[in-house]
Amino acid sequence: MPDSRPTPPSEPNERGPRSRNAGRPANGRDSARRRRGQAGRQGREKRTREGRQPREHARPFKPFTPEQLAERAAAIPVISFPDLPVSSRRDEIARAIRDHQVVIVSGETGSGKTTQLPKICMQLGRGVAGMIGHTQPRRLAARSVADRIADELGQTVGRERGQVVGYQVRFTDEVGPTTLVKLMTDGILLAEIQSDPMLRRYDTLIIDEAHERSLNIDFILGYVARLLPARPDLKVIITSATIDSDRFARHFGTWEGTPGSGRLIEPAPVIEVSGRTYPVEIRYRPLGPTTPSSYRSEASSTQADEPEESADEQSSGPMQLVLEDPDDELATLGYGMGEDIDVETAICHAVDELSAEGDGDILVFLPGERDIRDTEAALLDHLKGRGRRAGDDKGARPGDIEILPLYARLTAAEQHRVFEPHRLRRVVLATNVAETSLTVPGIRYVIDPGLARISRYSNKTKVQRLPIEPVSQASANQRAGRCGRVAEGVAIRLFSQADYLSRPRFTEPEILRTSLASVILQMASLGLGAVEDFPFLDAPDRRAVRDGVALLVEISALAQDRESADAAPASSQYRLTGIGRDLARLPIDPRLGRMLLEAERRGCASEVLVERRGCASEVLVIVAALSIQDVRERPAEHQGTADASHARLADPHSDFITYLNLWRYLAVQARDLSGSAFRRMCRAEFFHYLRWREWRDVVGQLRQMARALGIAAGPMGEPSTGDVVEAAQFGGAQDAAVRAVLAYGQGTASVDADQVHRSLLVGLLSYLGSWDETKRDYEGARGTHFTIWPGSGMSGHPAWVMTAELVETSRLFARTVARIRPEWVEPAARVLLKRSYSEPFWSVAKGAAMVRERVTLYGLTLAADREVLLGRLGDLVIDEAVAASRSHAPRAGSLEALAAGLVSASKDSLSSGSFEPRHFEELAAAREGTTARELAREMFIRNALVDSQWRERHAFQRRNEALVEQAREVERRSRTHGLVADEQARFRFFDDLIPEHVTSAAAFNHWWKDKRREHPDLLIYPASLLMPREATSGEGFPDRWQCGDLSLALSYEFAPGSPRDGVSMRIPIEVLERVSDAGTDWLVPGMREDLLTEAIRALPKGVRRLLAPAPDVAASVARWIEQA
């Protein structure tokens, strides 16, 4: 996509929130918060002055000099290979690398492919002209693999001369001049594409763990596939577990025609390396007798069109999985023997069971850091004095157990501890980093709750969520295989065998479980081109791409690129905006990220300030709540009780504010109660403890990510312990915390709810509804109709609402709803709005051309018949408005009809002056391409200046009206049509003098105020304008008739057929007897020539022919009479 700039992307583990203690505000924190608030404001001011702070760019590539190449070649160490399965196949692998550009190495974890493939490449002389780039999905794996390779080469990792192994992850770069093997996250490689599109700094790429199919891996595989023809010297090695290796071989094979759709000539070579494994016994220990796990998300656990396999079929292959005795009651009842227990309790029982099996370390898989910390605390409490924290073996006795956490945010030294020799049995608590990326030594036993935090797009809610959900069968088998590396092992699964068999065989590629809006946004950020043209292994549907682009345009992440051709792919017709670049750095659904950025744009700080309190922290808490499953539980057998419990914290106007009440309430209770008491409270009041914990994790992660964008979102304010005590004193102990929370939310320390809602609105523009009184429901976007979910806490039927979620069951329900004001929508929607206009009309009161505007958003009417100045429509071209709506017939008087020649006058007698249809006809026929501003100016000149249809009374107007009346009097007396200048001539007079910007009375008054000082007579009609043709002198048309001693008034009328046509004498009744008709039959001198002409024409034909032509003879006779 155009305008994409090099930006280091988030690594895969950073797209999902890393577990982090959200923290809570403590007493005496206000001063520190103010300091952070000042820093946040200063940062925002700096970005405002200097533009957004640039993100870190990858360094541009500079080719090696001959001297550097010689130094690098001399640095190659003596290479030896340990006794691993891949070592026995190294000659075959080396030949394949030498003879082919792409090689797929497939094998189970533990075969040694990750550590030995770089050494095989070095033996082939690769890594000198360019580095051997070795990608890992996670930072922890990149560091540990680099250490392991360097150790096998007798070196350490570093950037000093002579050191050949380095690594680069975010914030750490250990790559030097003689680095031959560079370990890095796949996100780092993607960032380098910006500055080095040909990847010249590498002569070999090893893409490890490709079977994980993260977005980054799919991006890299697609980009490399497109790059290979231009880099024939580049070697690519793709490592994968045995699953899907054929898929990679076909994707990188030789094709006749278009790759993927033509004929496959030859697939890329696949070398399968079996891992060294021992039999693994599988034991099922479900958490309850009926449900496979009480710790599950809403994600589907089935995979369409996948045939189920039996346990025996699943155990086939290089990994030998052996089931325990199926009649063992633990396999069906679990450790609770028919009672539900939580994950931590089950893990403690499993550790006891495995400890009795014999020596060997235990590996426990957990979804995130928070789960690891809670499990660590539970084990230390369960083991009493036998439990030891990591590294604390002082005074340890035989039989003691060391609890060792392993997750990405640990320091490098803490992570490396897992590979160090130790004398105590270990229980390693790890995230899924230990599933495939790392081989933890000495593991004999595995405990698998069967859960992982997996990024997934919810079609129901239309947002990207990070639920904790069951892992696939393949992932469960990978985890079980971790304990069969050194001896026979045992894997305990904390779910049932039926649950296992109901799970999908493989984990879906991330691109298929991610919002395409997120995919398009990431590709735009990384400069990977149009989605439609990118060689993905699993190409997304083109309609879904268009929907994703539309969403990104809606939230202002993409803008139309006017330089793009119309025939270009949909996604390439848009460019990334500044908002889009920031959204690409947030690991949440773009809609939710947009809400957070809007809170920051509105100046919402998180700290309590003297003047006011901002809303970034509140919006962050709401965004986190929308990205996880609802913390409230509503069991079927206790629905009424659960609803009553939750209703205590409901806000009658907004379910979003209810989330803030829930957060404050649970935070206060977690602060004031012990851990076990808090869990009991959650169960009693129908709150899901584990979801609350996940909510805190996501808030902490988002807060950390927000800081990287300059958003100072600190902890959200909550009632103090003293506030709760005070509420208990005045209202009783029951529900004291609820009352304290509600009072805090309504107090001055809380934020303005309107600010929160306006920040949320920008991400929910297609989720609005207006109340339809006729149908008694809400009309939504694009013609949908929905009703508010009965469980919502909002009361009544507000005229306008926004919702975070639309769920269709028996009908379409809106969940998480808030009332809004329609005037908030227009500034938020901007370019998404569609505006249509009625016929233009003239407003005497405003002295300007007006139209009635109708504003819609996705079919919802935000404003109807709103009067707006026509001139304010600016450069809206009438022709283009017609072309945009050719599918319907033009309405008489509309702008479209005006351009087409269909015109009408306004029927509004109150706001419209006389508006003759001929004005419209002239304007419609005058020119094509008239803009609204030009039309407004013409209408102003015609109606205000020419016809005086306005309320202003300037001196030049009075003078012009008098001059026009004088000229009309001459026209009447001379009985000559068209003698006085018509309205079009007077329009041209003003048109030459009035500036282009003057379209209304207000604009004219502002201009004329200064102009009249210099030229007071500028706008007065000249005589040459009013009487452009020669007129008869007024001497022959006396104003009075002398009859004896009487002087009688005369008036003139030019109205043929009327009794008053001609000249009329006004005779007072009192002098009527004194008046005679002597001389009146000759009319006035000015009419004598006409009288003579008509008299000649009345003569007999024979006489008349002698006096032809009659006008000339009449003129001669008239002159003779005057002379006589």
Explain the overall architecture:
This protein has 41 helices and 36 strands. It has an eight-stranded mixed sheet, sandwiched between helices. An eight-stranded parallel sheet has the order 12-11-22-17-13-16-15-14, sandwiched between helices. Strand 31 (841-843) and strand 32 form a beta hairpin. Residues 1-58, 291-319, 604-613 and 879-927 have low confidence and may be disordered. Keywords: ATP-binding, Helicase, Hydrolase, Nucleotide-binding. Residues 94-248 form the Helicase ATP-binding domain. Residues 342-527 form the Helicase C-terminal domain.
From the alpha carbons, calculate the radius of gyration and give it in angstroms: 43 Å
Distance between the termini: 97 Å
Strand order across the largest sheet: 4-3-5-2-6-7-1-10
Q: Which oligomeric state applies? A: single chain
- CATH homologous superfamily of the domain at 66-273 - what is it? P-loop containing nucleotide triphosphate hydrolases
Number of strands: 36
Report the structural category.
alpha/beta
Annotated CATH architecture of the domain at 66-273:
3-Layer(aba) Sandwich
Summarize the biggest pleated sheet: 8 strands, mixed
Strand content: 15-25%
Report the total helices: 41
Helix content: 25-40%
Write down the overall geometry: elongated
Keywords: ATP-binding, Helicase, Hydrolase, Nucleotide-binding
Biased composition (Pro residues): 1-11
Protein name: ATP-dependent helicase HrpA
Biased composition (Basic and acidic residues): 42-59
